[in-house]
Amino acid sequence: MALLNRMFQARTLAAGVPRALAGSLAGSCLADRRLWDRLHARPRQGNDPTFDWFFGYEEVQGLLLPLLRETRSQTAGPVRVLDVGCGTSSLCASLYTKSPHPVDVLGVDFSPVAVAHMNRLLEAGLGPGHPDSCLRFLQADAQNLVPVASSGSFQLVLDKGTWDAVARGGLPGSYRLLSECLRVLSPRGTLVQFSDEDPDVRLPCLEQGARGWKVTVQELGPFRGITYFAYLVQSSH
Q1: Helices within 111-193 (DSSP H only)
Q2: In percent, how much of the chain has pLDDT > 70?
Q3: Cis link prior to 112 (omega < 30° from 0)?
Q4: Closest Cα to residue 65, out of 99, 89, 32, 20?
Q5: Residue 160 has what DSSP assignment?
Q6: Distance (Å, rounded) from C-alpha 52 to C-alpha 99?
Q7: CA separation for the pair 40, 222 (Å, rounded)
Q8: Secondary structure (DSSP) of 57-73
Q9: What's the chain's Rg over C-alpha atoms?
């Protein structure tokens, strides 16, 4: 456990988290909402109103935009995108402001502090990259999305580090998260998990929890000296 915490602290420092906070996170249960409320309430450094765990939109647009383009060719309206555990990341906001394809983006997080911050950012005047795009933020537990998302209602579901955080409270929670993501995913949709966890560890978990789905992996980066992975879960038919 001590080694795991040291590794986690090194990764949070690489992600731009202040040293004192990285030490606190390394020794904490990342499935605890109160921890994230305190994190999101901290004053932000510089002029950036968002904070990105791992990396931001710019680093993964080369993966996301082709997925959006392909999905757009199969649907009449904007591509419905769900970001589970969005926190105060730039991912949702940048998809909305920069995607040339129309998107209907919903960011959910169990921290009311994070959701309130992102709604203030949205109300401050973010403009869409496409006139038909829209963006919303709601407080919700990613392990129980029933109050905010019906089955099969999203063509693209994004998880940037949320599995990783939930897993520190126990793998059963991560499997509940995965189950909910797959429940709200449309039959021809794609779930993308972004993580720094090695495929030798993550792939068996996804293959067990997503039986009947095709699971593939793409290497990303390195960003700030760390190699990341995009785990894609898609229909096997």
Answers
A1: 112-123, 162-167, 171-184
A2: 81
A3: no
A4: 99
A5: E
A6: 18
A7: 26
A8: HHHHHHHHHHHHHHHHT
A9: 17
Burial readout 3-33 (b: 16 or more C-beta within 10 A, e: otherwise): eeeeebbebbbbbebeeeebbbbbebebbee
Q: Tell me if 102 sits within 8 A of 134, measured CB to CB.
A: no
Residue 145 CA to residue 49 CA, distance in Å, equals 27
Distance separating alpha carbons of residues 154 and 157, to the nearest angstrom: 7
pTM of the model as a whole:
0.87
Q: Are 22 and 12 in contact (CB under 8 A)?
A: yes
Residues in the chain: 237
pLDDT tens series, the chain, 237 aa: 333 344 445 545 544 555 555 445 545 556 666 666 677 667 666 667 788 878 999 999 999 999 999 999 888 899 999 999 999 999 999 999 999 999 999 999 999 999 999 999 999 989 999 999 999 999 999 999 999 999 999 999 999 999 998 998 899 999 999 999 999 999 999 999 999 999 999 999 999 999 999 999 999 999 989 999 999 999 987
Coil, strand, or helix at residue 222?
A: strand
Q: pLDDT digits over 100-127, tens only?
A: 999 999 999 999 999 999 999 999 989 9
Residue 91 · residue 52 · CB < 8 Å: yes
223 forms beta bridges with 226
Q: Which two tokens stand for residue 171?
A: 């793998």
Identity of the amino acid at 96: Y
